[in-house]
Each structure stands twice: as structure tokens, then as C-alpha cells.
Amino acid sequence: MVEDNASTAATAPVDFIRAIIEEDIATGKHAGRVATRFPPEPNGYLHIGHAKSICLNFGVAAERRGTCNLRFDDTNPTKEDVEYVEAIKEDVTWLGFEWSALFYASDYFERLYQFAVELIRESKSYVDSLTADEIREHRGSLTEPGRNSPYRDRSVEENLDLFARMRAGEFEDGGHVLRAKIDMASPNLNMRDPALYRIRHAPHHRTGDQWCIYPMYDFAHPLSDALEHITHSICTLEFEDHRPLYDWLVNNLIDGDRPQQIEFARLNLNYTVMSKRKLLQLVQQGHVSGWDDPRMPTISGLRRRGCTPESIRNFCSRIGVAKKENVIDVAQLEHSVREDLNRRVPRVMAVLRPLKVVLTNYPAGKVEEVDVINNPEDPAAGRRKVPFSRELYIEREDFREDPPKKFFRLSPGREVRLRCAYFIKCENVVKDAGGNIVELQCTYDPSTRGGDAPDGRRVKATLHWVSTVHAARAEVRLYDRLFSVEDPERAPEGKTFLDHLNPSSLEILRDCPVEPSLLTAAPGTRLQFERIGYFAVDPDSRSGSLVFNRTVSLRDTWARIAQKVDSA
Ligand code: ATP
Ligand code: MG
């Protein structure tokens, strides 16, 4: 499984959850077992926040030779779909994890029903016939205790009968609910007789029309944990106030070893949104091309963008696990991605905004094969040949007719190196009638073959290039942050997070010359375009109509922009 953190058992625990687990093993709690689960609701695709939870749940289990289940929390039939189930499985696998067992909360519907009957028998639960509004009104508030429902003291027999008839479909949605009988005066609102079952005449993607009552998440979750003999039920902080109910249910219904709930702070990232409801809105309203749009914080989006599973796991382990909410800078994720790609991907030459260079003293029709190292970070990656000829493309921004002070790249009369090829010198700038630069006429120095001058003279810049006649053509999709503000959810009165969408989050460049070796690059291939950034071949790509996604730029341009703004 995840090799890099598979054996931390001998060292100090790296976070408070691992410390709890170590303590539990030492004291023999749960008989020394570690059993966790990752419990997504199949109502959307997984995002980078889920990756944090996945790395934690699967990670601690692997470190302790325990188990981690994948369990779909499919208790809400109207929002869930098999498409999501399949996507979630694919994403967990892609991240590098293997579940010990695969379950669905819906597998337990019959047993959950029996648990509910047991509570009724013990007078710990009752069928309430108030309307939803009345129930809300009886619940009280943070400052006021709630009031008992007039139906709270129904007899066990009446409750059993009503609950059976709820199941049999005799009542409309909302006609009755099954509630736990706990304490309407509890300071914790979750303990004021929470709903356990509701009527919902809706088909379920797995159980079809078998059920018209569905368990509430707060009821199904702890009991599903118990049925799977989970030891540590790790969840995010918003469930802290639900823990007394979790404990109430397992204490009342489960004998022997009971699961314990432990909460940690969810991952928040700036410049994005992470609620599935909002991500769904982006997809449904066409603000992005789908759940796997490379600008989305989804696992499938990050994959399509070119991120590696290792970089996401490294990021999750770097940000750590704590109990206090904070916001992580997306630059940290980009850093992990960059660092991993730097080690593993080959460098190639591609020109995004081409400017033609003609080497006036280079023989027409001559072609040389220039020898290039694929990845200086990885000798095993080998070398390749790149064709060089009289006409080349360079990056338009690598030339300035009137260079400012610190601009060391090409300008009239100046000499620069073409990567692994020759020194060239700009002799003449050719313009069209409108004054636009259409071509540079340069000379090359044949003695500098390979990129070094035998007389020891130096140049201050090395440019990437592509031979015009040999170039393959590609569409290049440049992605930027989907939102232009750090916290898109904090929108002013009358606005929504959608008002903060970054209008230039996608720039598409067409017909970019790229070196011919890329002509057959398969979808998913990851590369560095020299001096530009990391790119991945998009699934839309075909030989002959290549498409590249920019995964991440070479450096953090946003940090530089921020610096400029700060120092201005
Ligand atoms: P919603 O977006 O509707 O609030 P959710 O993100 O909580 O849903 P679930 O499918 O319930 O979606 O999440 C599965 C698991 O992932 C849960 O245990 C949840 O606590 C965890 N999780 C969800 N979001 C994050 C996050 N941002 N950081 C860490 N863990 C998360
Ligand atoms: Mg949730």
C-alpha cells in the first residue's frame, strides 16, 4: 500500500489520532485491533478533502496491519446515484488504496430496522405524528429547552404497530417519524429526541422499491460501524456534537466491543469550494466541463489535470491531522505536485506563443539530430534526438526589440543559446505592414554545437525551440484558479460563490508547435514543457490532434504577483 508511511509504528505518533490508536493498542482496548472505514455518501465525486480522510483512514489501518472498509453511506435515495459509486471506487483505487471490504449502508437496512424495533420495545424510541414544522417548533433553541411531543408516551404496542405500518407504506411522506426518546431539555440539540427513520416513497439505487422508510444518517452510521466491528470511527469536526448520540445508540444496542468516534479538522483550501452541493452546481450550470474538469478540486479533476496520486498523498501527509480548523493555501498542493513531477517526468520542448526564427547562415534543407537529456533529475530516463533546422519557433516572450534592464533573453544584436543546439544572434527584425514582428533573422555559430562556445564566451539565456517543419501541433489548455478570491463562499449580500468565478480560469491556445516526439503521447502522459510548466495529455487528445493540460506552472506565479502587490 502506501510505502512511504507504512511503518511509523516504531516512532512517535505523528498526530493525535495516531496517538489515541497507540494508546488503545497499549491498553488492549478493542483487543488491540484497528478497524477503520471511509464512508462517502454517493451523492457526488470525491474531492481533495476526501483524500485527506482517505489517507488518514487507510493510512492508520495499514500502519497497524488493521483493516479499512469502503462503505457507501447510501441512506438518502433521492440524491444518490450509481455513477457516483463507480467514480468513488475508481478514485480511491487511483489514490493507491485497497479496501479490506466493500459495504453499503443499504446492505444493513433490515438489521437497522430490527435495531429500531429493539429501541421501541425498550421504550427508547417512539413514533411521532407531529408535522415537520411542529417538530421544529417543539425542539426549542440553544437558549430554550424543547417540549415533549404529545405522542411521546405512546405505548410500545402502538409504536410497534405504527412503525410496521410505516414500513408497509400505509402513510404519506412526513406522516410520521420514528424518534429516539432521550431528553427534550438536553443542552445538545442532537439529543432532543432526534429522528431515526423517516418516510420517503422513493426508489433506492440498490434496494429499488423494497423500502419506503429510510434511516437517518445519525442512526445508520454508528450502527453500520458496529456491524462492521469498526474500532475507530474517524470523522470531521462537525460531528463532534453528534458524538453523544453516536454513543447513546451503540451503548443501547451493541454488546461487547463498541466503536468510538474521533473527530478531526476537515481540509479547507483557498480559491476553491469543497461542498458537494456547490460542486454539483458548477457542473449542472456548465461553469465547468464536468466533475473531472481540471479546475475542479475533485480527485478526478486533479487526475485529469496531471497530478500524481503520490503528490496528493504527500500533500495530505504534509498538512497533517489536527483538531483545529484552518485554511490551507492551494500553493501547498501545487508545491507537492511540482516536487513530485520534477522527479519523475521527462522534459520536452513546446512553444506556446510562437515567433519564427530563420538562421540565415544555416543551410536550407539540412537537418541535425540534437541530443537531449530527458530528465536531469533521473539518469535512468535516458536521452532522445530532436530535429534542428534552418527555421525554428521560439517563444514570443523570449524576444524584446527594446529590452528592459533585466531582460537577458533575445534582442537585436544579442546572442543566446538554443537548448542543446547552438548560440544564435539576432541580426534583423522583420515586420509586417502593421508593424508587428513576424520573423527574426538570426545567425548561428557552428562552433557552438551542443550549446557551448569553445572560446569560453558566455550567454545569459537559454531558450527552448521547435523546428518549424518538424513541429507537431497541439492544443494547450492553461488552467488557473477557478475562483479569483481566497474565500469564494464569503460572498457579499445578494451574491453567491458563483459571482467570484475567475473569468480567465481557462485559456486555450491552439496550434502550438511542440517537438515531434510528442505526436504519439498517450492520454495521461505527464511531461515538463521546458521553462514553462508541467503538462499532461488530456483524454480528449488524439494522435494528430494533441491536447495538453497545464498541471502546474514551473514556479508559483501567484506568490510573485502577491509579492509585487505587497511591495507596491
Ligand atoms: P457535503 O459536501 O455534503 O458536506 P461530505 O463532504 O461530508 O458532504 P461525505 O461523503 O459524507 O461528504 O464524506 C465522506 C467522508 O469524508 C466523511 O467521513 C467526511 O467527514 C470526510 N470529509 C468530507 N469532507 C472533508 C474534508 N474537507 N476534509 C476531510 N475530510 C472530509
Ligand atoms: Mg457528510
Detailed description of the structure:
This protein has 568 residues and is of the alpha/beta class. Among the domains are: 8-268, Rossmann fold (3-Layer(aba) Sandwich), CATH 3.40.50; 348-471, Beta Barrel (Ribosomal Protein L25, Chain P). The protein has 13 helices and 26 strands. Strands 20-17-18-19-13-16-21 form a seven-stranded mixed sheet, with no helix packed on it. Strand 2 (67-72), helix 3 and strand 3 (102-104) form a beta-alpha-beta unit. The longest helix has 16 residues, at 48-63. The structure holds adenosine-5'-triphosphate and magnesium ion (MG). Adenosine-5'-triphosphate is lined by residues 39-41, 49-50, 52-53, 235-236, 266-267, 274-277. Adenosine-5'-triphosphate binds next to helix 2, strand 8 and helix 9.
Would you kindly provide a brief summary of this structure?
By secondary structure, this protein is α/β, with parallel strands linked by helices. The chain is built from 13 helices and 26 strands.
Any descriptors?
binds magnesium ion; 6-stranded mixed sheet; disordered N terminus; 7-stranded mixed sheet; Rossmann fold; alpha/beta; elongated
